[in-house]
Each structure stands twice: as C-alpha cells, then as structure tokens.
Design a protein that fits this description.
Length: 172
Amino acid sequence: MKYGIAVFPSRKLQDLANSYRKRYDTKYSMIPPHLTLKDPFPVEESELEGLVREIRKTAKECRPFKLEIIKYSSFYPVTNTLYMKAAENKELIELQESLDKGPLERKREHPFIPHITIGQEMDYDELSDVFGRLKLETIHHEELIDRFSLLYQLENGAWTVHETFLLGEDNE
C-alpha cells in the first residue's frame, strides 16, 4: 500500500487553497490542501508497525514550527503546477530531514520545496494566464503547526489519515 506524510494547515488556509484547487487541481477531490513532508512510498503491511514507531520517535524529537506562506509560485517548466510557497525554517527542515533517515529513507524524485499545491496538470496557456495574475497578488499567512499525519492511499486514489503525530510530545 502507498503511504505519505503531510501537514494539514488551518481551515482558513485550506479554504484559500481550495478556492483555486477546485478549478485548477485535478486531484482536488483526492486529498485536502496539504504540505507534503514525504512523497508517497510503498509499505508492506508487515512493516507498518515498525514504521509508525519510527515516525512517533521523530515526532517526539522535533519541535512545532511556523508555517509561513510567502508567495505564489510555479514548478514550470518541470511540471505545470501552481503552488503557495512556504518559507523554509529550521524546525520545518529538521522535521522533513528526520523523516528521510533510517528506515524512512527513500530516494526523492525532486528536492524538498515546502509548498501547498493549488493547481496541477494544467495546460500551458492556462498555467501562464493564472500564474501571471497570481504573481501580482500579495499573500502572507502565518500559523503554528504542531502535528503531521501519516496517510495512506485508497483504491480509488484518494488519501486518508492513518495516524496523526504531535510534534515534541510523547505519542505512545
């Protein structure tokens, strides 16, 4: 089964992201707005318990962090994806790096760029038009993130939470 690790921001930020996603994100109905900490990876049922123990340990060792959305951006020309860029900070980077060590280590397809996707699989003209408008807009949002979730993918492609972990606390 495929698993992934993500942060779900506040309802306020999710609502803002969804105002774009419902029109520009082909995966709108599959998962709420999120910041991916670990891209999807396969896990055998027999490995799941050990994996969850490692994630609990990581969560306990890492601290809550400030999620600061600073601008709209695009991954073009690599992919036709629009996103809200999150500022990198020490606690966020430490969490992401900790989730990529030991038994959790997996080869990344792309470097870690903290973001919340608002549009993907767009044709070039639409991407260019929408991104041109978004570059003119100012966005600044801050909130404290104190948890993240291990997700798994259902047969229909949708994602659901397996377990949520509090940062800096005992999750046993």
